[in-house]
Protein 1
Amino acid sequence: MLQTSNGTMNQSQVENKRSMLTPEQSAELKKWLIAVALKRDKQAFAFLFKSFAPKIKSFGYKQFNSEALASDLLQETMSLVWRKAHLYNADKGAVTTWVYTIMRNLSFDMLRKMQTSKEDCLSDDIWPIVDAHAADSDTEAFSDHLLKQQLAKYADALPEAQKQVVHGMYFNELTQEELAHQLNIPLGTVKSRLRLALGKLKQQMEKNS
Amino acid sequence: MIKHHPKHELLTAFVAGELPAALNIAISAHVEMCEQCQHALAALTEAKAEEVFSVEDFSVFESLNSDLADELDELMIANITSQKGEYTDELVDVRSVDYAGKQVVLPRALNSVDWAKFQGVGKLSRARLDLDEGSVRSYLLQIAAGGSVPMHTHKGYEVTVLLDGTFEDEMCTYNKGDFIWLDESFTHSPVSNNGCLCLTVADDAPVFTEGLSKLLNPIGRFIY
């Protein structure tokens, strides 16, 4: 193996391929998405919406040859961006890749519904959005993946303020300083919320293992 | 060790969502087992997303502060942001199939697919996936130890993803995870000495089964 981990390889590929959006623009998109994930920030969402809407509409129009269906695709895609923002993992790739996956999947299921008698939604199992594919397919990675899902569930049950901090640190990979800045709270508060949250998570994991 | 992979063009079409469901499922099944293709796929998806969302039309970067916002867009934004966020992904169920006295975990791509009962002739047994895609037919196929498929060729294409076990044909030995694409330029007769479980997808050209009676030639109906 040339690479030591998926992360390093993906990172270098990302750097090479990012010719169309400037790094500043990509960083902007990421900032907005993380703001939606952490704070349900409506303004940041509006920026994301306006960035992606024209392209999603024209992609949809090419797929369905219908303005109405293109608009449905836009609505459905951006709804999922809003509702799943906290599942975006900055480590796994660019915001554009994440949004593209959501849009392509929805579009595939819509087309299938039109072309067959089937109401099944196959796309999220074919192209998983919460990225099971990116993990190594050996058992260790698999159980690690399960553990992560379980942790994510416990983290979801934390009080709002603590949840924000845990999500920011572990899902969005922000530093404590960045988080303090994003949430507009003192660094000390970030630290104490984190300590409380981790204590609770530890308790939960011990209780259930 | 996986040696057979989908071609670059096929992965590209997979990323673009241009293939029939059955082929998508076959490719996804292979990718789940193949680290090399996981990397290739990550890079292709990244590139495709960049292409689709290319910068020229990223209107926000020009009009962010202008008040030209479309009223309909504003309505849609208000509508979406009035929803609760916090979508929780459920744990993904794992499905398995019993064959040759053991349980084989199936690829995630088959999670929401139904299939008919396994029906067998001799050492071959197959279950048709219920995907409703016209001429594209897909099966879970088991070959019991020592079983073989008689010499045949293909109209259109035939894809086999080996989910468990091994089989051989005149060209090579195939292992778990291999993705094998054959077309009419190949004639082969696969043999599985120790048994295997595959996912097969074929674009079943009508001429292929023409005149073949199920009763007179059950094997004929059997060849993908």
Note: Confidence is low (pLDDT under 50) at residues 57-68, 205-224 of chain B.
Protein 2
Amino acid sequence: MRINFKLLLGSALLTLSHGALAQMNIFACEPEYAALAKELAPDARIYSATTAMQDPHQVQARPSLIAKMRQADLVICAGAELEVGWLPMLQMKAANVQVRSTDKGLFFAAEHVKTLDQMSNVDRSMGDIHSLGNPHVHFSPQRMLTIAQALTGKLIQLDEKQSAGYQQQLSLFSVRWQLAMTKWQVKARALQGMKVIAYHSSFRYLFDFTNIEQVADLEPKPGLPPTSSHLASLLKRADKGDIAAIIIASYQNQRGANWLAEKSNLPIIILPLSVGGNEQSNDLFSLYDSTLDLLTQAYRAQK
Amino acid sequence: MKNFQFLPARLSAHLPIKFSAAIVISSFFPLLSQAQTPTLSNLTVSAVLDGYYQSDDRLMTERAEGFGLGETELAFSASIDDMFFGKLTTVFESHNGETEVNVEEAFIQTMALPNGFTVRAGKFLSDIGYLNNQHLHSDSFTSRPSAYRAFLGGHYFDDGLRFSYIAPTDLYWTMGVEAFSGDSLRAADEHGERAFDSTGVYTAFTKMGGDISIESSWQLGLSYLRNENGQLTAEEHDEAGHEEAGHEEAGHEEAGHEDENDHAHGASYTGKNTFITDFVYKWAPNGNYKYQHLTLSAEYFRVSDFMVPDLHEELAGAADHEEGDDANSKDYHEAWYVSGVYQFSPNWSAGLRYGKLNSQLQHEGHFDQQTLKETELSIAWHNSHFSTVRLEFSHQSNVGFENANNDNVMTLQYVVTMGAHNAHQF
């Protein structure tokens, strides 16, 4: 009994001290933004709604997410309609006015950078695409730096007292990020001209950064799974002999890729979609390191 | 239908309503492409097309034998200002050559109340049970379980007011109360003589839920519905004592009759107190819902006090004389179902559902127990996230229902969504 009482008292005190610190509750739609929040607001209580093993397009507006959003001070999402199938439902059910609009505690990363592949005329017959451009911006190092700056601005807006602390975290992050960027640019230069077949446009920004050419997509149309006739046409394309690898993301089904790899003798590279997508990717830095290393290995093997 | 204001007058004058509706929907597309932002701040327009062929009539369903349109809906929603969100959902249905236009939702909801409170007013879907607040087009079967068809008229939407609260806890916990006019849940009143309460239905509900692991989640709900107009009265009993009235009652439960426009959306069995328990469990490998996932759900309904006390006594007296005949008749209706739906791949899913309804039918001065058992197997092909073609086989066996055979019914259905991406509930 005594132990129980102590435990109870301890947890009560812990709750109180948390309250005194006014620890910020951050809800991230994707793990890359949870990781970024951890760099910029290390003291915050951060929750990621999805993992790198899950398709961020198709997430259930499940009870636990509603409960987390109810308590959030800040919600960070990729935006550009990536979360259109579930975020509005969470907002509706969580009844948390703080995270309803971008004027307050809602932050869309894609709103702060120029997205690629914006379309003026979108039609569903083209597949599940978004007029606001490709939302998977987290593989663009330059854009992530801009997003980090904007996010710091948002953190300061919400928690002015800690303004100096957030500024300090941002400058620390910026220095480390820029240093890493020079290293990544060297690796990227070596990858220039590499041709790949990939699944979805998940790595659009990575390929843009590294000048890798995605010559074909395993999906016949965005959001639609590979079909056998489409795979047959990819095999024909692969027979030209200039393709280095088939690339899929950690959450994507390997079946189509396996079939194509077997027929074409191409290697499959499973790249982490985000932080936590493989053993090496523990934060944003190691995510880039691991991804670029995996690509470099495959390109060297082709040569 | 004449009041359907989205139709330009010229079009509706020249074309059958079905086709003009389609044209109007398509003419919204230029508007749609600019109204897709998910932030609840722009006007979102979405349409759902639902068409079917059904080999036979089924008890209490809105779908009838032959070709027809199910819940074909056109919905508009937007933030009105920083406080209010509004939604209008219009539903078209057609079967047996009749077209209906209904307003299923026309509500405003607060968005900026503090501390997790929300108020919704207007016409909306009640939040009782698991399926009721979901739109029919997101169902995995062509018809709602018999529990919903018998006690809520398929799905219960009404004019009313809701207060709800969500607790700031890691365990999802929400609760709410509602008041509705309750017209569609009124007890049968063939002669229109009864003085019904204008605010007839009150509900209270709570839902809890969470994750068990990264792969699975659950939700449990408890609901109570009090229906001031749900009890059969003694006068009613007098009417039902005659044989014709008994047949009226039976016809009331049958969809697909000529009076279905009046009755298809109303409950077939009503009572003063309804209790509902629901449970949902979802699983996906790694919590990734793109390729495979499983949904298990079950609900139990109990509708009690379906007759006023003096009627109850009278019938109890009658039962003493008749002996044995009424031995299996209970003083409550109940129904339950269990359902499992598995998505094998992004293109294919299959579902199996079993449900049972035990209801008491007023008949010549006493109540007879009726039983309806239904087994449904549905197989769906999803060309994309936005289109579904479904084939469903249902087997129903019943005891005590008139004009109903123990049947195998086949239904072929399509459901497609256009315009703004619909956000789905858990």
Note: Residues 163-191 of chain A form the longest helix (29 residues).
